[in-house]
């Protein structure tokens, strides 16, 4: 077994941090490490917290952490914020807000760095969640800004997704358009101390009347993260969803689908990398891009076919 995997299994937090760095850097050792990580028995519940910047996700997670620690549950937090790749401001903010937990061995907090593509970030996040799981945390919380496909991809690895919305922010339409409503297992109205809560609730109820969710109807939870209000209810709803997933086999189904998507994605990436490397070696082939009128379909097909025949 990879020495880091072994140490992670023994709950060595430094090894956990080191493993995530390997994952972030897409280090050569990553594959060996991950295959050992996959072999470790896991049991964490993965909870994604998504929503627009400023909705209060970090504040909420901070309060939920405090609440969960009081229930004697151990928690890992993975914060992903691709909207601020270089400033680090958001991360710093998150750190200060979550700072009170830094000395607690039952808590691990990590901000994912944005290196390379967003797709790469999504993959790194998923693997980091798994490493936290192998460590033995009861709950893995993932904070992500719900803005694009990659963020939706990240949410595809979690069991329960809470969508954080705020009254009067007017972001419901945007969230709806981005396809984020559909992945919500839970609607969290944070900043419920502000006016407009009833209006938002009726908008959400209208939405549910239209889509008529089958099986699980996403409950609406109200929270005030600045005052730690609503945490018991929030956690209860998350647990309800967990029971639902377990009792209906929807959880296993979800994880199977996620696995399939992930494997497809990896294959797509691998083939693309190989075709690209192979074709770029040939300068003549690259010259074709000098002609802007070339037929892209035909070119793509011929490249792929040539690559596929290569080893025959
Ligand atoms: N009034 C009010 N403000 C909140 C609440 N939760 C968070 N905030 C504030 O909203 C701002 C953004 O919070 P943050 O947790 O950084 O949002 P994030 O970008 O979604 O992680 C901060 O100034 C928080 O103090 C709440 O329940 N009520
Ligand atoms: Mg945040």
From TrEMBL:
Q: Does the keyword Transferase apply?
A: yes
UniProt KW keywords? Chaperone, GTP-binding, Hydrolase, Kinase, Nucleotide-binding, Transferase
List the InterPro entries hit by this protein, alphabetically: GTPase/Isobutyryl-CoA_mutase, GTPase_ArgK, P-loop_NTPase
State any single GO MF term.
kinase activity
Q: By its UniProt entry, which SUPFAM superfamilies does this protein fall under?
A: P-loop containing nucleoside triphosphate hydrolases
Q: Which domain of life is it from?
A: Bacteria
Q: Which family does it belong to?
A: Belongs to the SIMIBI class G3E GTPase family. ArgK/MeaB subfamily.
Q: What is this protein called?
A: LAO/AO transport system kinase
Lineage of the native species? Bacteria, Bacillati, Bacillota, Bacilli, Bacillales
């Amino acid at each position: 077994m990879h020495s880091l995997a072994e140490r992670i299994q023994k709950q060595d937090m430094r090894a956990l941090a080191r493993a995530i760095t390997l994952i972030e850097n897409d280090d050569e050792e990553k594959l060996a490490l991950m295959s050992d990580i996959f072999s470790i028995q896991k049991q964490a519940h993965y909870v994604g917290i998504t929503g627009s910047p400023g909705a209060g996700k970090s504040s909420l997670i901070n309060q939920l952490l405090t609440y969960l620690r009081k229930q004697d549950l151990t928690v890992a937090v993975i914060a992903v914020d691709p909207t601020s790749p270089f400033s680090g401001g958001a991360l710093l903010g998150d750190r200060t807000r979550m700072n009170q937990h830094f000395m607690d061995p039952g808590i691990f907090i990590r901000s994912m760095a944005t290196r390379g593509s967003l797709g790469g970030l999504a993959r790194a996040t998923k693997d980091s969640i798994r490493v936290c799981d192998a460590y033995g945390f009861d709950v893995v919380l993932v904070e992500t800004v719900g803005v694009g496909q990659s963020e939706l991809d990240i949410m595809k690895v979690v069991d329960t997704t809470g969508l954080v919305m705020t009254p009067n922010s007017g972001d419901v339409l945007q969230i709806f358009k981005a396809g984020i409503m559909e992945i919500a297992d839970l609607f969290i109205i944070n900043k419920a101390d502000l006016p407009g809560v009833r209006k938002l609730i009726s908008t959400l109820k209208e939405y549910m009347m239209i889509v008529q969710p089958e099986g699980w109807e996403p409950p609406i939870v109200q929270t005030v993260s600045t005052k730690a209000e609503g945490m018991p209810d929030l956690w209860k709803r998350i647990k309800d969803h967990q029971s639902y997933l377990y009792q209906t086999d929807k959880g296993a189904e979800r994880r199977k689908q996620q696995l399939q998507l992930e494997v497809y994605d990896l294959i797509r990436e691998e083939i693309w990398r190989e075709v690209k490397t192979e074709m770029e070696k040939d300068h003549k082939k690259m010259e074709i891009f000098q002609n802007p009128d070339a037929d892209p379909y035909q070119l793509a097909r011929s490249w792929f076919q040539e690559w596929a025949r290569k080893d025959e």
